Amino acid sequence: MAPPPIIESKPIFLDAMDQDQLTDLQSDLTLRIRAVERDEGGDFRTGGEQRNETVDLYTPSMLFFPELFWHPALHQSLLKLLLRLEVSMQIDSSQRSVINLVQGLYVDAGATSGAVRFVPDY
Predict the structure, then answer these.
(1) N or C, which terminus of the chain has less Cβ within 10 Å?
(2) What are the phi and psi torsion angles at 38 (to 5°)?
(3) Which of 6-10, 16-20, 52-56, 80-84 has the lowest mean pLDDT?
(4) Are the beta carbons of 68 and 77 closer than 8 angstroms?
(5) What are 113's strand-pairing partners?
(6) What pLDDT, in 10s, does the model give residues 54-89?
(7) 78, 84, 96, 67: which is closest to 34 by C-alpha?
(8) 17: confidence class by pLDDT, cuts 50, 70, 90
(9) Dmax of the chain from CA atoms?
């Protein structure tokens, strides 16, 4: 008997996350990122498209709002999503993942320095 065919699918952003365990703001972030993972035709976005959609949805003050830091998996998973989509980012393993995320999303030097100020304990 032949093994069942392998179905290639990309995981949905934090699909295993129980929305009931998140605050409204955290849940909103999760659902919005899921909503822009695919384009209008239902195809998964490229890495650059995903980055642009995320930056369009969230200013640094919104994406790095203190309440979102209560659940570190949100930022870590967003960074992993962008890396999986092959967004060109410099990753410095000596930095926290949220700083790598800031620098990968807001690539303009002025935007990066502005966004970093919203990250606590930087």
Answers:
(1) N
(2) -120, 150
(3) 6-10
(4) no
(5) none
(6) 999 888 888 988 888 888 888 999 999 899 888 888
(7) 78
(8) confident
(9) 60
Q: In sequence order, what DSSP letters do the residues of 21-39 get, joined into one string? A: GS-HHHHHHHHHHHHTSB-
- Residue 8, pLDDT above cutoff 60: no
- Residue 62 amino acid letter: M
**pTM, entire model:** 0.81
Q: Which two tokens stand for residue 71?
A: 């659940």
Rounded CA separation 84/37 (Å)? 12
C-beta of residue 101 within 8 angstroms of C-beta of residue 115: no
CA dist 46 and 39 (Å) reads: 9
Kindly write down the DSSP assignment for every residue of 46-104, as one continuous string: PHHHHHHHHHHH--HHHHT-GGGGGSTHHHHHHHHHHHHTT------TTS-HHHHHHHH
Residues sharing a CB contact under 8 Å with residue 47, sequence separation 6 or more, in sequence order: 82, 85, 86, 87, 88
- Which DSSP symbol is given to 19? G
Tokens representing 56? 């369009």
